[in-house]
Write a structure and sequence with these properties.
heterodimer, A: 485 residues, alpha+beta, Arc Repressor Mutant, subunit A, 3 domains, nine-stranded mixed beta sheet, three-stranded antiparallel beta sheet, 17 strands, 39% helix, B: 94 residues, mainly alpha, Histone, subunit A, 3 helices, 2 strands, 36% helix, flat
Chain lengths: 485, 94
C-alpha cells in the first residue's frame, strides 16, 4: 500500500512595527530615506552608548499578545543574540530569549474544511538589522537606517498541516497586525517577513520527522508555493529511500524552488546571554487591562457581526472586513441609509465590492480617497431602493458623483434621470401603446406572450426613457389580462 | 575541562585565527579561568532566581518620538571604507 504523508508546519513571522522612532534610540524609522541618514551612535553600535526602550514597542507587542490570546509575562528581559554580519553593527542583536513577553496563545483561522486553531508559542521583541546591498558596487554597501527598527517575532506551534493553512494563518496574522494599526503588513516591502519550519511524516505517526527551515518567503504566493515545493521535495526524498537533512533552505522565486543555504554543521551558535544594558520590563495587571480595553474589534469578530447584523453572505463579510478602513466605511454608509434593511445593506456591499474597489485598485488608493463619501453612496442606494431611478441609471449617477460632494438626489435632478413612476401617466401611455398596436395585441392574446417585452419597450420609448420599467411591466400585464380594452 | 577543540571553535566564532602553539597556550589559560570561576558551582543555589541586574529598577522607557540623528558624513567618519552615502565592506554573498 502506498504511504500517505502529512506535513507538519510552523511559521515564524517577523513584523516590523510602525513606530515613529527606533526600538532603542530616537532615530526616525521613515522608510525610503537616503542611506545612513536615520543613524546615531546607539544604533551604529558605538562604544559607551546605552539603549533605552521605546514604550510603544512594549505596548504594541502586549496588544498583539492579547489579540492572539497569549499570556502576558509579568516580568521579561532582553538578551543578546551574537553573530557577525556587516549589517549588524554591535555584533549582536538585542532580542528576547528565555522569557518572551507573550506566550501560549492561539488564533482561529477559517479553512475550507471549517474553523481551525493554530497555537502561538511565543511573541517576542527584537531589533532589525541594517541592509546590505550586493549589486551596486564591487564591495558590499551597508545602509544602517533600518538597524534598530523594532520587530516582533511571532512563532506558531507546529499546528499547520498544508500550504493553504499556512497561507490562511499568515493572512490572519497580517490582518490582526493591520487592525491593531501596529504594522503595515507589507510582505513585498519587508515590513512582514515569514520563515517556515517544515517536516513530513506518514499519517498516523506521532513523532516528528527531521525539519528544514525555508526562508525568503516574501509574498503570499511564495509562502504557499515554497511550502508546497518543500513538502513535495521531502516526500520524494523519503520515497526514494533517502533521509531529510536538517538544513536551512532559501526560496528562489525566480526558479520556483528551494535550495540549501546552510547545513546543520554550519548552524549558528548565537551564545545568547542577558543584555546588561536594559532593565527588565514589568507589565502589571493595570497596565495590561488598560491595553486590553483599548483593543479594537478584530477582523474575525467583525466578519461574524456583519453576517448577523447586516444579513450579508459570508463572502461579502469577508471581503468587506479584510481591510478595517473598508469595513468602517461600509458601516458608515449603512448608517446613512434612509431605508434600513437587508436589501439596502446588500446593495451597499455590492457597490463597494464592485465599483468602489475597482477604483481603489485602478488608482491604488484607500477607500477614503476613492472619490466619494459613505453618505453619497447611501444616498445613491436610497434613490434606487425607492424607485426614483433605475439601477441602470444608478451607474451613471455613480460615475457623475466621483470627485464631487453632490448627493444622488441632486445628480438625478441635474442629469434628468428621474424615473417616471406616476401611475396615472404610465397607465395612459400603456393604453396608447395598446391602441396603436392592434395587430400585436391580437397576436399576444392568441398566445404570443413574449410580446410583453415589445409593449413595455414601446411605453418606455414614448416616455423618453424615463418610465419606471418595473411599474410599466406590472401595469402592462394587468392591461393585457383584461378581456377588452 | 576546556579542550583545544573548544578554544578553536570559540576563536572561529570570533573570526580569529591562531597558530597551534597559541591554541595550546590559550587552552591552558582558559582552563585556569574556568576552574577559578568554577568554585561558584560548589554553592547551593537551589531556589535562587538568576540575577541579571544589580538594580531593582524596571521599565526604563522613552516615549516614541523621533529625535535628531547625526549626519551621514559623521556616521561614516570612522569607517575604514566608505563612499558618500554607504559603509563599504568586503563582498559578502547573501
Amino acid at each position: 500500500m502506498q504511504t500517505t504523508y502529512e506535513a507538519i508546519i510552523g511559521l515564524e513571522v517577523h513584523a516590523q512595527l510602525k513606530t515613529s522612532s527606533k526600538a532603542f534610540c530616537a532615530c526616525s524609522t521613515t522608510y525610503g530615506a537616503m542611506p545612513n541618514v536615520n543613524v546615531c551612535p546607539v544604533c551604529l553600535g558605538h562604544p559607551g552608548t546605552l539603549p533605552v526602550l521605546n514604550r510603544n514597542l512594549v505596548e504594541w507587542i502586549v496588544k498583539m499578545g492579547l489579540a492572539t490570546n497569549c499570556h502576558i509575562r509579568e516580568r521579561s528581559s532582553f538578551s543578546r543574540k551574537n553573530y557577525f554580519y556587516s549589517d549588524l553593527p554591535k555584533g549582536y542583536q538585542i532580542s528576547q530569549f528565555a522569557d518572551p513577553i507573550c506566550y501560549g496563545g492561539s488564533v482561529e483561522i477559517e479553512t475550507e474544511e471549517g474553523p481551525k486553531h493554530i497555537g502561538i508559542t511565543r511573541i517576542h521583541m527584537e531589533e532589525d538589522s541594517g541592509k546590505s546591498i550586493h549589486d551596486l558596487d564591487i564591495d558590499t554597501l551597508v545602509d544602517l537606517n533600518r538597524a534598530g527598527v523594532p520587530l516582533i517575532e511571532i512563532v506558531s506551534e507546529p499546528d499547520i498541516r498544508t500550504a493553504r493553512e499556512a497561507y490562511l494563518y499568515l493572512q490572519h496574522i497580517r490582518q490582526i497586525l493591520v487592525y491593531l494599526d501596529i504594522c503595515d503588513g507589507n510582505l513585498e516591502e519587508g515590513s512582514l517577513r515569514c520563515d517556515a519550519n517544515i517536516s513530513i511524516r506518514p499519517v498516523g505517526q506521532t513523532t516528528f520527522g527531521t525539519k528544514t527551515e525555508v526562508k525568503n518567503l516574501n509574498s503570499f504566493r511564495n509562502v504557499e508555493k515554497a511550502i508546497q515545493f518543500e513538502i513535495a521535495r521531502q516526500i520524494a526524498l523519503v520515497e526514494g529511500g533517502a533521509a531529510v537533512q536538517q538544513v536551512t533552505m532559501l526560496w528562489d522565486a525566480s526558479r520556483q524552488e528551494t535550495r540549501v543555504m546552510r547545513s546543520k554543521e554550519q548552524a549558528h551558535d548565537y551564545r545568547y546571554f542577558a543584555e546588561p544594558d536594559l532593565v527588565h520590563v514589568v507589565v502589571d495587571e493595570s497596565w495590561k487591562q488598560r491595553l486590553h480595553s483599548a483593543l479594537p474589534e478584530l477582523g474575525l469578530a467583525k466578519r461574524r457581526r456583519f453576517v448577523s447584523q447586516f444579513g450579508l453572505p459570508a463572502y461579502d463579510a469577508a471581503v468587506l472586513t479584510d481591510d478595517a478602513e473598508v469595513a468602517a466605511w461600509y458601516e458608515a454608509s449603512c448608517a446613512h441609509l434612509n431605508a434600513q434593511g437587508p436589501e439596502a445593506y446588500k446593495a451597499v456591499s455590492n457597490w463597494i465590492m464592485t465599483d468602489v474597489m475597482r477604483i481603489m485598485g485602478q488608482n491604488k488608493v484607500s477607500i477614503s480617497n476613492a472619490g466619494l463619501s459613505p453618505e453619497q453612496l447611501a444616498s445613491l442606494v436610497d434613490v434606487v431602493q425607492d424607485g426614483t431611478i433605475s439601477s441602470k441609471s444608478a451607474k451613471d449617477v455613480f460615475a457623475a458623483m466621483l470627485g464631487t460632494t453632490k448627493t444622488a438626489s441632486e445628480l438625478v435632478q441635474e442629469l434628468g434621470l428621474r424615473q417616471e413612476s406616476d401611475e396615472g401617466l404610465l397607465r395612459q401611455l400603456v393604453e396608447d401603446v395598446l391602441r396603436d398596436n392592434p395587430d400585436n395585441l391580437e397576436k399576444y392574446r392568441g398566445g404570443k406572450s413574449n410580446l410583453l417585452g415589445f409593449f413595455v419597450g414601446q411605453v418606455i420609448k414614448r416616455s423618453g426613457g424615463s418610465a419606471n420599467p418595473a411599474l410599466v411591466t406590472s401595469i402592462m400585464k394587468e392591461a393585457l389580462e383584461q378581456p377588452t380594452m | 575541562m576546556i579542550d583545544k577543540h573548544e578554544v578553536a571553535s570559540i576563536a572561529s566564532l570570533a573570526r580569529l585565527q591562531f597558530s597551534d602553539e597559541d591554541l595550546t597556550t590559550f587552552t591552558h589559560q582558559f582552563g585556569r579561568i574556568v576552574d577559578y570561576i568554577g568554585a561558584i558551582t560548589q554553592l547551593d543555589v537551589a531556589g535562587v532566581e538568576p540575577m541579571t541586574h544589580v538594580h531593582d529598577v524596571v521599565n526604563v522607557l522613552r516615549d516614541d518620538v523621533a529625535g535628531t540623528s547625526i549626519s551621514t558624513a559623521e556616521a561614516l567618519s570612522n569607517a575604514p571604507k566608505k563612499n558618500d552615502a554607504f559603509f563599504k565592506v568586503p563582498k559578502v554573498l547573501g
